[in-house]
Amino acid sequence: MNHPDAYRDQEVVVIGLAKSGVQVAKVLHQAGAKLTVNDKKDREQCPEASELEALGISVLCGGHPEGLIHPGVKLVVKNPGIPYSAPPVQKAVELGIEVVTEVEVAYHLCKAPIIGITGSNGKTTTTTWVGKLLESAGMNPIVAGNIGTPLCEAAVDAKTDEWMVVELSSFQLKGTKDFKPAVACLLNVAETHLDYHGGMEDYVASKARLFANQTSADTAVVNWDDPVCRELVPYIKAKLLPFSMTERLQEGLFADPPYIPDVTDDIERSIVYRDSLGVVHPIIGVDEIGLPGRFNVENALAACAIAIAAGAEPAKLAEPLSAFRGVEHRLEYVIEHAGAAYYNNSKATNSKATMMALSSFKQPVVLIAGGLDRGSDYTELVPSLQERVKAVVLLGETRHKLADRAHQAGIEHVEVVDNGEDAAATLVEAVNKAAELAEPGDVVLLSPACASWDMFQSYEERGRIFKEAAHKL
């Protein structure tokens, strides 16, 4: 797309309200576009509509009216979560009208260099961590995007001496054309969101949009241990800065000594950076990192690589790596009850995220899992269930699929809960059953391996209900 100023007196349609829709509408209105904002939800479910109408913006709620998209429309900006199969989006594509997400609009506004971070797992933790690292290094970060603050809102006032640190989803990236971050990081790729993308090919291609416009003046931070990430390397034009848990790299960030895949050990390790001259810079001992779990070592490696690519000195990274205690709903310690520790990992919306969480514990785990059925058969969970889990409590659309996998893993205690349409009561019952199964020294872990939308408005709601139930035991 062009700069928002280029759409003065031209028709632009924004589909989907929420925070990002409101902010991008304000930006385009300020630029002088003839703006229509549309949301299929009923008016009473769109409290943001009044704010936009007060500015003179036309807002249409309650469906997608006939004629919303027509040949006179020059640009469509859609909420990332709206699928491309939605009728107005399909119509725009048929008419050759450009369809973008808010990220593309914000890119044209933002004066600060952008750090873009995506991946199937670990995005929010890594993005937040990068913000802490850059702040400690005195580099003026602004943390925005899929993590909370809409990118358009942050981009309007961003300055050239700041760094825009942006968490990006595949949904957001799929709707980009010119977007070009100065530092781009792909953390990992796992099978997820296939209901939206229709298959892994489109999902991976959407993630790869992060690197599409980079040049040799930019940096691509890539997980060297992830086979899908490695396959993208030949197509990346930016300077490569890899990170690895399992290999001492010629240049990049790595764990030293390396981890041996699928082997648990207690070897003392460090995170180190080997620069382009071959000089090795020790950063921090793994045991000093503020977050538990092998996968958080991987997140720390990525965060360090991003910070160094942005210009942070390796010697200044140890303190914020140690001080950071994580993000809500991501392996969040909740409470100890009757000798068992309760952890909220509601953000685990795919199998890999749950496997990573299970690998963080040496204690026996009572696992609460299940949720939206996106077509996975969850076979990949079986080894982790065999190794770590003593009992499971299952809910949601996938409860029976996961029960089959638990039986396949040889788990003796498999409980399925379902209170009909009362999602909160179902989760509370699951917590109570898990408490009955847990013994002193165990871990009770909510790590669903599924999205929440079959029962809850969001993974945050699911996590909050779990925590409230745990505190009431």
Core attributes:
33% helix; six-stranded mixed β-sheet; UDP-N-acetylmuramoyl-L-alanine:D-glutamate ligase; 20 strands; 3 domains; Protein-Tyrosine Phosphatase, Chain A; globular; Rossmann fold; nine-stranded mixed β-sheet; alpha/beta; 473 residues; 21% strand
How many angstroms separate the termini? Answer: 54 Å
What order do the strands of the largest sheet run in, or round the barrel if closed? 7-8-6-9-10-11-12-13-14
Number of strands: 20
CATH first level of the largest domain: Alpha Beta
Can you identify the CATH superfamily of the largest domain? Mur-like, catalytic domain
Percent of residues in β-strands: 15-25%
Using the coordinates shown, work out and report the CATH topology of the largest domain: UDP-N-acetylmuramoyl-L-alanine:D-glutamate ligase
Class per helix and strand makeup: alpha/beta
Catalytic activity: UDP-N-acetyl-alpha-D-muramoyl-L-alanine + D-glutamate + ATP = UDP-N-acetyl-alpha-D-muramoyl-L-alanyl-D-glutamate + ADP + phosphate + H(+)
Domain Mur ligase C-terminal: 329-450
Function: Cell wall formation. Catalyzes the addition of glutamate to the nucleotide precursor UDP-N-acetylmuramoyl-L-alanine (UMA).
Main location: cytoplasm
